[in-house]
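Repro case for the chain-ordering regression, as requested:
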Amino acid sequence: MKRLLFISFIFLLLASVFVYAAGSAEIPRNSSMKTNSTNTSEMKRMDCENLNIRVDRIRCRLQNKTREENVDYNVRVPEACRTLKSPTSCIALYKNVQRDKCYDHVGAEKDRCFRRLVGFSKNNTSELSARNYLILLLYGLEERIEDANEAGTISDSDTAEIIDLIVDIKQSILDGEKRAEIVVKLNELKQMIKSVQ
Amino acid sequence: MKKQSIVILIIVLVLVLSAFAFMNNKFANSEEKNTGQVPVEEYKDFQTNDDYINAIDETINYIPQ
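-- result from build under test --
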């Protein structure tokens, strides 16, 4: 009898601990359940990130007016860095651009900001700095396409297709692909931009 | 004796200042002397999509074929 009582007590104790742990555990996916405390834009953002296909995520962000330069890269990994084996330096590049507010500059000042950030200059045209500079140039182009979309010049669908290709090119550059492979995609991008202008 | 000390002090001071000016000038112009000219960085004036595309086309040449 005494033994049964002891076993029951242990069982009750274990069950209590389990219930407490289950109740207090915070699983990221469940955060969407906190509907009451989460504002609508945050909900929309989370919905976009849950989409599996890249172009769908991009279209979703466009529809929700989530511009790349406003993204918190501590929370969301930039699209171009997602498929990399070691995305640390890629994420750092995006964070540095945001920190230095390169996208607030216009014209030559923007180029100066880009070049300073990646160390690309007449004296340093190393492959790494050139690849990083290309990422920033493509990002600048992406920004212009987003501006045109916001102004109503380019549809959400066309903008999503163009940005998807830009991201694809950025991934090729970051993956260390050869020039010939990148140029093919760049030519496709030029055609695409020309067709919507 | 006192007058002599002041003269020596002035000479030392002039020598130190000259050395400082010489070194300063040497460091400032070292790049110029090495290359023959001061490298001037030219920045792209990004105003249109084509400005970005042209810059991309130029930069892609630094990626190995």
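Ordering looks correct now. Chain A has one domain: 2-21+40-195.
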